[in-house]
Design goal:
By secondary structure, the chain is an alpha+beta fold. Helices cover 57% and strands 7% of the residues. It holds the Pfam family L_HMGIC_fpl.
Amino acid sequence: MSVSPPLADLSRLYQTEFIRSARAVGVLWAVCTLCFAIIQVVVLVQPSWVGTAEVHHHGTGPSPHVSGTLGLFEVCVDSDRPVPDCRGSLSSLSPLASFQSVAVLVGVSLWAVWTSVLCLCLFRFCSAATVYKICAWLQLTAGFCLALACLLFPDSWESPEMRALCGDSVGSFSPGNCSVHWAYILAILGILDAAILATLAFVLANRQDALLPPDAKDGEGGDKDKLYCHCNIVQRD
C-alpha cells in the first residue's frame, strides 16, 4: 500500500521537527554538563564545607570560640584582617590528612565529568548514540564518587582540624559548634545533577534510532544507503 504524497510530506515534517527538538535538548544537556564540571571544581577547592555556627557570647571579654570555615584542603579562621587566615596546601593539592579519601573521591568525580565534557568533541567522529552513552556512564561514575564523598565526609569529623574549629564536642556525624556550609550542600546537589544528566544522556542515546526513517531498519544494501542519505537531507532542511 503506497503512502499518499500529503501523508509523506506530513511525516517528513514531523521528522524534521523531531530532529530539531532532539538537537535543542542535546545542546541544553551539553551546556548543563559544562556547568556541572565547573561546579565540581568549586566544590573541590572551596574551604566552605563546614563552618562555625552562630554562638551567642555573653560578657565583656572576647569570645572563646574560634570562627571560620573548613574544606578538604584548607582551614580558614577569621582574623582582624579583611582576608581570613587559611592554613592548608591548596597550591600543592595536598588535602587535609583526615579528608584525603574524600578529596580523592571528589577528584575522581571531577576527572569523570571533565572527561565527559571532552567527549563532546567525539560527535564529529562517532555516532551520537555512542557519545551519549559514554558520557552517561562517565556522569554516573561522577555522581557515584561524589555520593561516596558526601557520605564519608561526616564520618571524618573526628579530626584535629575539626576539634580546633568546632570544639571538643565534635564526633562522627556530629559537627559540634559548626554546621555544614554551602560547598557541602552544592556537592549534594551535584549528585542529583549527575543523575539527571546521565538519565537524559541515556534517553537521547536511545532516541537516535528514531531520527532515521521507519524503513531504515528493514531496508537492505543500496536501500539503506538511500534512506541514510534521505535522513541527512531532512536534517539539513
